[in-house]
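Researcher: Please translate sequence to structure tokens.
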Amino acid sequence: MKWAVPVSTCPIKGKPYCFHLDHAASLPYFLEKTTFKGRVFMTHATKAIYKLFLSDYVKVRKVSVEDMLYDEQDILRFMDKIEVIDFHQTLEVNGIRFWCYTAGHVLGAAMFMVDIASVRVLYTGDYSREEDRHLRAAEILQFSPDICIIESTYGVQLHQPRNVREKRFTDVIHSTISQGGCVLIPDEYWSNHPELHNIPIYYASPLAKRCMVVYQTYINSMNERICNQFANSNPFDFKHISTLKSIENFNDVGPSVVMASPNGLQSGLSRQLFETWCSDKKNACVIPGYVVEGTLAKTIINEPKEVTLMNGLTAPLNMQVHYISFSLMQILHRQVCS
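Model: Translation complete:
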């Protein structure tokens, strides 16, 4: 019921290059629990966000101490080993030269060019050639690499244009609120529709709130529109949204909008709200990003007639479920390398 920011990793000649969690949660284990003694490089923003996500991962995972791959102390030691790299900065390790380009997609994401004996290898995880509402698009390179290694999750899929997905998303919001239901919404749509200003909007993700500080710190990494806006006001100060710390603080009366984590609906506030709302056909759950197999969010995309609650009982799934992804990697743009 809420977004999650991804991290990806690629070990190239003994050096892992990172940028976000569904691909790199094992990196602390790799450095702290194995014999690997190489170096790790991240962009500044990636390192800042990565630490927040790793700490949150350790706190929320439901495994025994014996089954934990690493703990908070391992993360602290691991983070001290990470070296930072600026975009377009060239570094050399054991005769291997490398530098990185802006990849779009998420703050800090980078495409790495690795030069080994004059053979140039471009490695990138998720990237986007489409400028979004706050980030620049991935750079077009000045030369073609000899080898290209690219994330391929969405590589064979065609996706609707962003403006079409946004309209679908906001249409769901408007129709659900108008019939007295509860749903998830982005801030900017609210600003342009004053008839909805009396509807309370809540932000229920302490992790995302901490990440907003990182976004404000690296404002110069944003696109031109955000940089210009920041000169006059803070674009990450969401004046229409209130913080929701727990379900006990939530006055669940009338229509409302809640952005909650975790995105897989497997536990926490998003799961509690889902179980409270799922049997009422007036309500809606909008899943705005990639979800992992085996999670409740993945299950309800197929709209089963009932769902299993955390207490083991079942409940009818009468609420509307909409999967409108905004986490798409735009690898269908052809001109990454000129």
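Researcher: Any highlights?
Model: Confidence is low (pLDDT under 50) at residues 1-19, 184-188, 328-338.
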